[in-house]
Amino acid sequence: MSTLTAAPTDRHNGRFDFSTDHNDLLGAHLSTQGGVPTVFARAATVGARAVALFAKNGNQWKGKPLEDEIRAQFFEERARIQVGPVLTHASYLINLAGTDPVMYEKSIAAMIDELERAEQLGAYAVVLHPGAHLGLGVRFGIDQIARSLDRIHCAIPACKVVTLLETAAGQGSCLGSSFEELSAMLTLVDERHRVGICFDTCHVFSAGYELRTRAAYEATIDSLGLHLGFENVGAFHLNDSKRAIGSRVDRHEHIGAGEIGLDAFSFLLNDPRFTRIPKVIETPKPHPFDDDIRNLTLLRSLM
């Protein structure tokens, strides 16, 4: 049997202040078709300097174990391609605010598995949609998410991977569409150092936060800092929006081709408070490589 026991880990100075030899940490959420090690060849093709991936199928509860051989190939490819920070995205099925006993236990088990997989791959964080209260109310849902994270942390006390709660667009009873809601979740978690935030530009805009003028951007970021603290922002998802501000509809668009426009991305990319935080695109991919190259090239032209 292989003696592989530990994964390389991302270097960072402070909480989410990543060491880098590049002038940006722009990247993309990339396919792992053919196995997780293949993600780095795709990263090289599109020019990604940070990578997001599913460590297993995002629409399934369970996945095959990560064998030592696969992990070894993953580390070898990462070293060969020289990609920066790696983060994974949790299954879309997970709802830590749920109450149905069967689905809730599946969600707890699935999130434990996601964190363990991320640690096996040397990722620094798992991005998670916080959950939906399904009619039981915001206060109940926020408390349920915090207690769920406490339970997960107790189950894997030695895990170093952080859970990044993603800002939500506000569809239906989904929680986390306001900085205040996210702040309440973080505050209620016992081990607060094990949680942070992923800021999605499309979701924030759809939830009603204005980003399109300098003054509006600064007001939104000031609110972010007030309620959540900049030190808790561990990643950005850079996506334009197909829908208008405040629509509460999650529909991603190519950079500059949606309702947000280019100025907001220029403000964010040139904000010194976030220079060393990974920023990955989740823009549409009808032509995966060409679309990612085009969006990343456009973003870099704004820097």
Report on this model:
The structure is a single chain. The protein is an alpha/beta fold and 303 residues long. It has one domain (26-301): TIM Barrel. 37% of the residues lie in helices and 13% in strands. The strands form 2 sheets. It has an 8-stranded parallel beta barrel with strand order 1-2-3-4-5-6-7-10. α3 (101-120) packs across α4. The radius of gyration is 18 Å and the shape is globular. It starts with 25 loop residues before the first strand and ends with a helix. The relative contact order is 0.14. The model is unreliable at 1-6 (pLDDT under 50).
Topology overview:
Layout: E1 26-29, H1 39-46, E2 50-53, H2 68-81, E3 86-89, H3 101-120, E4 125-128, H4 138-155, E5 162-166, H5 179-188, E6 195-200, H6 201-206, H7 214-227, E7 233-238, E8 240-241, E9 252-253, H8 262-269, E10 279-281, H9 288-301
Parallel strand pairs: 1-2, 1-10, 2-3, 3-4, 4-5, 5-6, 6-7, 7-10
Antiparallel strand pairs: 8-9
Helix pairs in contact: 1-2, 3-4, 4-5
Quick gist of this model?
The protein contains nine helices and ten strands. By secondary structure, it is α/β, with parallel strands linked by helices. It has one domain (26-301): Divalent-metal-dependent TIM barrel enzymes (TIM Barrel, Alpha-Beta Barrel), CATH 3.20.20.
